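hi! just following up on the protien thing from before. the input was this:
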Amino acid sequence: MTLALIDYGAGNLHSVANALRAAGAEDVAITADPSVVRAADRIVLPGVGSFKACAAGLWGISGMVEAMTERVQVGGAPFLGICVGMQLLATRGLEHGVTEGLGWIDGQVQKIERTDPRIKIPHMGWNDVGLGRHDPASGLIEPGEAYFLHSYHFAPDDGASVAAMTDHGGGLVAAVAKDNVVGVQFHPEKSQGYGLSLLARFLEWKP
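and the predicted 3d structure came back as:
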């Protein structure tokens, strides 16, 4: 099984690759080659930084978004987005202006609103992950504690796409899912046993 870990200059690739291997992945291809993505059995899109910069990096690779769309949306390959890689699933992001996303899960990425002066932004560190009202990820996400680092959050249009929530001065979406696509706002590669267990389940996931 080949897993394509997309290199678009916006992720801590080697940490994610090491975590995937620790979780049981045998063939992790760190790649910026659309043909590798088009042939992969599973795809992981990491992301660190602003929505705008990450989108520019991804769309800046000729043919990459088309290859991802063909393999995931048409071919049905399981897909995992991490942090900004999850946020890019949205219709648009509102960080540094309006930037179009992949639009695979309708919604927008907007700034975390400070509802309590004691709440710090960015949302950084360990926090609980609780399941959403539905189970769009078919058991992939489990309750636990994960490591977060973000100032913007994904607000889906449809609550049925919410796979998990966390609380930081109010509810924030911790994971989204739709069909063969799942995204997590937290960093599995920094979330120790909880994160490795999630990655191991993703490697076996048959949506």
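The domain at 2-204 is CATH 3.40.50.880 (Rossmann fold).
The helical segments are 13-22, 34-39, 51-59, 64-74, 84-87, 192-204.
cheers
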